[in-house]
Every structure is written in structure tokens, then in C-alpha cells.
Design a protein that fits this description.
By secondary structure, this protein is an alpha/beta fold. It has 19 helices and 13 strands. The protein has helices at 10-25, 45-59, 72-85, 99-104, 117-120, 125-128, 153-158, 168-180, 198-208, 225-239, 252-260, 272-280, 315-325, 328-338, 345-349, 351-354, 357-365, 378-393, 399-414; strands at residues 33-39, 64-70, 91-95, 132-133, 136-137, 140-145, 148-152, 187-189, 264-269, 286-289, 299-300, 302-308, 369-370. A five-stranded mixed β-sheet has the order 2-1-3-12-6. β4 and β5 form a beta hairpin.
């Protein structure tokens, strides 16, 4: 769910297939060491995992947990290189949408035989099922979030709005009112136009008008009335100067930073921004609301998963560490540090989460959450969509031509 992560394109899937024989013969770790590859969510990621490793080793002195943290931007290449050489770790955190490619190449271990009903019962099914491929569980939800709209209460009130906009039409009206305030360097609505989730930012209004990324027949669902409505909304915002200038230069963290600085009226993002605001912008008066509605309400649900590799020589020890990571105590420490949603039922019932008004907004949205489709070639689909969206935002493509091109390119990938 991190803004810089990338999944596996076709060339990489072919590399994984070519490396499968090497993986069969190469062990991933020594007999008493479990190696774990983790991406960096924040400055708190390694401290959390290190304390978890230390606590586990204190209870299991015959097992050593060896941690390796890499930037999300480098994780894909790191894993592919290690897998191809048969020197990968025993466990790794990955984007859940990578799981299908890994499972098809048989490089990750099915986990169902390790789990009993009590273990499965720890989780909300919403967060566990995205890691299931054809009835087999290949990963566990290490991180989970949804998306909601943060809004600057002061800016909206100054523009004449006591409440945040509930629909996209109201958002455009409120954005015009904020622009009319004439504040230099202050913009109404932040649009992400660069890097991972640029496509998702477009899907928010499309989903809100009943659209889908893929149809029930498994084809592109973007070139539809809902897609055209979403395009019209965003081009109106961009062309009227209601967003930050140069939207294609802004990835998610950039528009979040504008909001922290009081320079944005509204931004859609995940619950982790709440923690960042408390630490980095404690004086900012903000509120949280649903993603604006069209004909319906919708949001984006996201999970990252931790997987076990098939060639691990220490599967029992690796599973023991996974079991430990998903105890309620450890889940509380991780989610409290990183600002993610609870995936553990007991954790969610604790006052620190149950009484957290910000988290309630996100959890209430989960019933209408859309997850990235679990299909091979998904990242190629995302990249193709982003390319055409950026061209449209820059005025290099007409909206209807962009939607038609996205449809053609996506269907070519799926076929």
C-alpha cells in the first residue's frame, strides 16, 4: 500500500518461472535462522520488527530472527533477484496483489495446513480473503487500510461550509469557494497524478458512480458512463485551477504534505495520515469524511501480506514467528506505530482503536470497499491506465480517447 511499490510484470513472471528449479534445490536459511525481508513503511517500521524479533527470540532461544529492511521502491527487484538465485528470505512482506503471480509460479508456500480455526478466527475475513487464490491462503494481512477524505475545517468554514462536501458535485462547488478566497499557494482539492495509486485516485469518482475496474466478464470496465463522469469531474477540477498545479508531479506523499502544511482543503488518503498529523501538524484543525458519493458510496481497501517462501528450510520456525506476529499484543504495537486499521478482532475491540474517531470513519467505509482485482498482469494494467490519465491531465489526450485507449490496452493485457 505504499506509494512506491510495484508488482510483477510479465517479464518478471517469466524470470520467476525460469528460477523455479533453482529454488527447489537452494535453501533460504540456515537451520536455526529465519530470514525476514520487510519494506519500510515509516521510521517506526524497523524498531517495531526488531522488538518483535527480540521478544520472539527470548521465548524461542533456539531460533534466530534475521531482519532485512529495504525501501518499497527496491522491493520488487530485490525479491525477484533473490528468488532467481535461490537466496531469498524465508518470509517477506509484499503487496497483496503480487500474490497471484507468486502462487502461479509456486514460489510461495500455501498456509492453510499451518492454520487452525482458532488462528483464522483472529482475523476479520475482509482482510484475510484478499490473500486467497483458488481457495488456498498464500499470505497473511500484515497491514490494512481504507481511504477517506481529510478536510481542512478552517478553510472550508472560511469558504462558507460548515460541513464537508458529501457528493462530487458539492466538492466542486466547495472547491470553487475555496479558490475564491484568493489565498496564495492554497488549493482546494489534491489530485495524485504520479506513481502508484494514481489510477486509484481516478477510480474514487468512477466507483462512486457505480463503475468497476473490470467487468464480470473479466474485461476493462473503465470506458463507461461512470468512467466518463469521473473524467469530467477531474478535468473540471484541473481546468478550473481547483487542484494543486502540475498534478502529474505529485505522488501521494506530496499531496499529503500539502495538506499537513495547511495548503489543501481536501485530500483522499489512508488512516496513516492521522498519526502523521498528530505528530507533524498538531495545530491543524482537520476532519474526516467519506469519499464523496455519486450514485453510491465507495472507497478503496488495501492490504499488504506477509508470505512464506516454498524453498525455506525452516518452515516450522518461520510459521512460529508468523503466529507470534499475529498475536493481539504484537498487532496492537504494529498498528499503533504505523497507523493502520486493525485486522485482529480482539485488537479492534480495544479502546485505543474502538474509541478512535478517525479509525471509525475508515472502518465504517469497509462495507463498500473495492480491492485491486487479483489478476495476472495487474501492475501492467495500472501502469497503462496511469499513462493515459497523465496524458489527459496534461491536455495531451482527449478524455474520451483516453478511456477508449485504456480499454483497449487493458483488454490486450488480460488476453
Amino acid at each position: 500500500m505504499h506509494q512506491t511499490r510495484k508488482a510483477l510484470p510479465r517479464a518478471v513472471r517469466l524470470a520467476l518461472a525460469a528460477s523455479s528449479l533453482a529454488m527447489i534445490s537452494a535453501g533460504a536459511a540456515s537451520a536455526d535462522t529465519v530470514r525476514v525481508t520487510i519494506p519500510e513503511y515509516s521510521s517506526k517500521t524497523m524498531p517495531y520488527f526488531q522488538q518483535a524479533a527480540d521478544a520472539f527470540m527470548a521465548e524461542n532461544p533456539d531460533t534466530t530472527i534475521e531482519l532485512e529492511m529495504v525501501p518499497w521502491a527496491n522491493l520488487q527487484q530485490k525479491l525477484v533477484t533473490d528468488i532467481s538465485g535461490g537466496v531469498n528470505a524465508d518470509l517477506a512482506v509484499i503487496g497483496t496483489r503480487w500474490i497471484l503471480d507468486y502462487a502461479e509460479q509456486e514460489v510461495i508456500e500455501p498456509l492453510d495446513d499451518y492454520m487452525d480455526d482458532a488462528f483464522k478466527g483472529r482475523f476479520f475475513e475482509t482482510f484475510l480473503t484478499p490473500s486467497v487464490v483458488d481457495g488456498t491462503t498464500f499470505g497473511l494481512p500484515i497491514a490494512a487500510s481504507a481511504r477517506a477524505m481529510f478536510y481542512n475545517k478552517g478553510l472550508l468554514e472560511e469558504a462558507g461550509y460548515a460541513e464537508p462536501p458529501a457528493t462530487w458535485d458539492e466538492l466542486i462547488e466547495a472547491s470553487r469557494a475555496i479558490k475564491a478566497l484568493g489565498k496564495d499557494g492554497v488549493f482546494a482539492y489534491g489530485i495524485q497524478g504520479k506513481s502508484t495509486e494514481t489510477d486509484v485516485y481516478f477510480y474514487y469518482p468512477m466507483w462512486s458512480y457505480g463503475g468497476t475496474i473490470l467487468t464480470e466478464d473479466g474485461l476493462s470496465g473503465v470506458n463507461t458512463e461512470a468512467g466518463a463522469k469521473a473524467m469530467d469531474i477531474y478535468m473540471t477540477l484541473i481546468n478550473e485551477g481547483l487542484t494543486q498545479p502540475g498534478v502529474t508531479d505529485y505522488q501521494r506523499a506530496d499531496i499529503e504534505n500539502l495538506f499537513k502544511q495547511g495548503k489543501l482543503g481536501m485530500v483522499i488518503t489512508g488512516p496513516f495520515l492521522s498519526n502523521q498529523l498528530k505528530e507533524q501538524a498538531p495545530d491543524l484543525d482537520y476532519g474526516l469524511a467519506k469519499v464523496p458519493a455519486g450514485t453510491t458510496s465507495a472507497t478503496y481497501g488495501v492490504t499488504d501480506s506477509i508470505v512464506m517462501f516454498e524453498n525455506s528450510d525452516v518452515k516450522d520456525e518461520a510459521w512460529a514467528f508468523l503466529d507470534f506476529l499475529f498475536t493481539t499484543d504484537q498487532r496492537v504495537k504494529f498498528d499503533e506505530a504505523e497507523g493502520f486499521l486493525p485486522v485482529n478482532k480482539k485488537e479492534a475491540a480495544m479502546p485505543m482503536f474502538a474509541d478512535n474517531e478517525d479509525l471509525k470513519v475508515f472502518t465504517d467505509l469497509l462495507a463498500g470497499a473495492h480491492f485491486a482485482p487479483l489478476v495476472a498482469g495487474w501492475e501492467e494494467i495500472a501502469d497503462s491506465t496511469i499513462t493515459d490519465l497523465q496524458a489527459t491531465y496534461l491536455g495531451q489526450m482527449e478524455p474520451d480517447a483516453a478511456l477508449a485507449d485504456i480499454e483497449t490496452r487493458v483488454n490486450d493485457i488480460l488476453e
